[in-house]
Recover the amino acids of this structure.
């Protein structure tokens, strides 16, 4: 089944979406494991993610930020892909709405996507990582939300049926941790076309 | 009444959490988040397999330290919480040992592991056995790699015996002596003073 008109160059958002993220949450008493939408899930605090983020940043020469982004993209892609597949969600606004709601469900903040052609802008009015970083260390002059970039890759790949989230380029162009009122990510990709 | 870990896990695991109107989960004096366990494991695997040999030990220390800070600050918030007071404190007979044992009920309720204190010499030595901990699924690492369990375990010992909060962090260390990820039936973690 063909999804809606992803190739139209009009803005696509979650406006008018008819679904949200309402996962099956389960706790296995035997294994002591939570699952959300069929994926094992764990609770941690902002200290944990900000220290992972600092570690990634300090390991820039070892591609630390990229590792954090890719780890997030790989994990979130699996959850989102399974969710829309099992529920037969094909409309782009609905898929965007699922991604936005999942982000908030996880406690990662509030994200809104505006997609246009082969690009998108994701705006975070609140951000778990940025808020956590500011609590621990205060402002800094470089963005830190590598994990968020991975989530955005996963969300866009699932929304537009892209075969590989690694082909999506994501840049954090404004950052709460740097003093901006909202974080903003720009993303772009190339759709696969017959004859390419 | 002795600490009933299964009851603690049963009661506290029902408290499903999700983001508020801002998409955030403020609780226990920190901001929480819940993400796929594979995210944490994937990053650990990627950073450890990329780091050159001379940096491996430092990377492992940083991973454990991240968990220790998480365990110390969040653990303190948990002990102060109404939920802990309602569920765990009525079982506490011996402080702080029973509070420490009760924290491992929270450990299970949050999905970190099925972990329990099997030996405790107050302020001197604690042995924890953990089953089903998610770090055992860390890909491409062939040595004990339960950095989260290690860090949180020593942080809990810091909370119990490290001195007044918030100045007790880092008084204990944790050695992982067994691991599911290396073929053992469970992970074993031995916490002793620094």
């Amino acid at each position: 089944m063909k999804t809606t008109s992803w190739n139209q160059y009009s803005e696509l958002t979650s406006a008018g979406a008819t679904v949200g993220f309402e996962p099956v949450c389960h706790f296995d008493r035997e294994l002591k494991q939570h699952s959300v939408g069929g994926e094992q899930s764990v609770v941690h605090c902002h200290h944990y993610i900000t220290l992972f983020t600092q570690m990634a940043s300090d390991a820039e020469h070892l591609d630390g930020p990229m590792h954090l982004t890719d780890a997030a993209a790989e994990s979130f892609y699996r959850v989102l892909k399974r969710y829309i597949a099992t529920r037969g969600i094909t409309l782009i606004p609905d898929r965007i709405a699922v991604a936005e709601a999942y982000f908030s469900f996880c406690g990662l903040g509030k994200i809104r996507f505006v997609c246009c052609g082969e690009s998108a802008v994701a705006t975070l009015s609140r951000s778990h990582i940025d808020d956590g970083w500011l609590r621990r260390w205060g402002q800094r002059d470089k963005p830190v939300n590598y994990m968020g970039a991975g989530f955005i890759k996963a969300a866009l790949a699932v929304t537009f049926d892209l075969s590989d989230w690694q082909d999506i380029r994501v840049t954090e162009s404004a950052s709460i941790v740097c003093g901006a009122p909202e974080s903003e990510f720009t993303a772009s990709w190339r759709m696969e076309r017959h004859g390419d | 009444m002795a600490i009933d870990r299964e009851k603690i896990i049963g009661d506290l695991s029902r408290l499903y959490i999700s983001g508020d109107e801002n998409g955030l989960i403020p609780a226990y004096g920190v901001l929480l988040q819940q993400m796929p366990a594979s995210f944490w494991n994937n990053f650990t695997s990627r950073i450890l397999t990329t780091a050159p040999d001379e940096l491996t030990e430092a990377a492992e220390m940083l991973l454990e330290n991240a968990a220790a800070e998480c365990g110390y600050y969040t653990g303190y918030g948990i002990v102060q919480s109404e939920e802990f007071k309602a569920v765990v404190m009525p079982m506490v007979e011996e402080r702080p040992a029973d509070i420490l044992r009760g924290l491992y009920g929270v450990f299970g309720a949050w999905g970190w592991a099925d972990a329990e204190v099997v030996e405790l010499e107050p302020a001197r030595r604690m042995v924890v056995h953990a089953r089903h901990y998610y770090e055992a699924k860390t890909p491409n690492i062939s040595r004990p790699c339960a950095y989260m369990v290690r860090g949180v375990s020593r942080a809990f010992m810091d909370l119990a015996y490290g001195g007044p909060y918030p100045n007790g962090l880092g008084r204990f260390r944790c050695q992982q002596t067994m691991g599911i990820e290396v073929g053992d039936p469970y992970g074993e973690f031995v916490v002793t003073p620094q």
Summary: Helices of chain A lie at 46-58, 64-87, 92-105, 128-136, 146-159. Residues 1-6 of chain A have pLDDT under 50 and may be disordered.
